[in-house]
Automatic annotation (TrEMBL):
Domain of life: Bacteria
Reactions that this protein is recorded to catalyse: P(1),P(4)-bis(5'-adenosyl) tetraphosphate + H2O = 2 ADP + 2 H(+)
Lineage of origin: Bacteria, Bacillati, Bacillota, Clostridia, Eubacteriales
GO molecular function, one term: bis(5'-nucleosyl)-tetraphosphatase (symmetrical) activity
InterPro entries per the UniProt record, alphabetical: Diverse_Catalytic_Enzymes, HD/PDEase_dom, HD_domain, HDIG_dom, YqeK
Matches recorded under PANTHER family: BIS(5'-NUCLEOSYL)-TETRAPHOSPHATASE, SYMMETRICAL, SLR1885 PROTEIN
Keyword Nucleotide-binding among UniProt keywords: yes
Gene3D superfamilies from the UniProt entry: Hypothetical protein af1432
Cited SUPFAM superfamilies: HD-domain/PDEase-like
Protein name per UniProt: bis(5'-nucleosyl)-tetraphosphatase (symmetrical)
Organism (species): Heliorestis acidaminivorans
Keyword Metal-binding: yes
Keywords assigned by UniProt, alphabetized: Hydrolase, Iron, Metal-binding, Nucleotide-binding
Entry EC no(s): 3.6.1.41
Length: 202
């Protein structure tokens, strides 16, 4: 696969098909993800493609969105998820990426699929796309600066704080809390605890 040609093609497609606000957000996520990919020595082309495609299905007509989501559905997804349209564009977009662009790399597909809820098994490229979505330059919520600073030195620490913030926000809004998000949070805590123990010799 010629990744540079693919990036160019996707760039054009997202510009043509997205509203201008979402396109600007997508470019900002791309920039932030690329910066982290370089900092943490991850595949920059995989990060760029995933970032450009993360919201590809966000503005789709509901019928198309649900049809892709249903085909992409994993067995461990909760039943109530299908009633929450904002949660469907990740998995739908990942299936689109595979079928329309022929992308087979799991680290790209899972980054698109899990960028809204997270997932306990998500890899580093998925994590930086998740983070980029939260800290891109136009984001201005309370706590964003803390995540930006953490993202300069530790993907997992930045993830843990960002996921905690999301969980607090979801609870305050009275929304459904996704099991993937809870599992991810617990997984990150465990990983960070293991890291601390290794480094302090305890
Ligand atoms: Fe999204």
């Amino acid at each position: 696969m010629n990744w540079n040609a693919l990036v160019q093609r996707i760039n054009q497609d997202v510009e043509m098909t997205m509203g201008s606000k979402r396109f600007q957000h997508t470019l900002a996520v791309r920039d932030s993800a690329l910066e982290m990919a370089r900092r943490f020595d991850l595949n920059p082309l995989h990060a760029e493609v995933a970032a450009l495609l993360h919201d590809i299905a966000r503005e789709w007509p509901v019928k198309k969105l649900i049809s892709y989501y249903e085909r992409a559905k994993r067995e461990d997804r909760p039943d109530w998820e299908a009633d929450h349209l904002a949660l469907l564009h990740g998995p739908a977009g990942a299936l689109w990426a595979r079928e329309y662009y022929g992308i087979e790399q799991n680290e790209v597909l899972e980054a698109i699929s899990f960028h809204t809820t997270g997932h306990p098994t998500m890899g580093k490229v998925a994590k930086i796309v998740y983070l980029a979505d939260k800290i891109e330059v136009s984001r201005a919520y309370q706590g964003v600066e803390e995540v930006r600073q953490l993202a300069l030195r530790s993907i997992d620490k930045a993830m843990q704080v960002s996921v905690d913030q999301s969980i607090c926000y979801i609870i305050k809004q009275g929304l459904f809390l996704h099991p993937y998000t809870v599992e991810l949070r617990n997984h990150l805590l465990k990983e960070l605890q293991n890291y601390d123990e290794r480094n302090t010799g305890r």
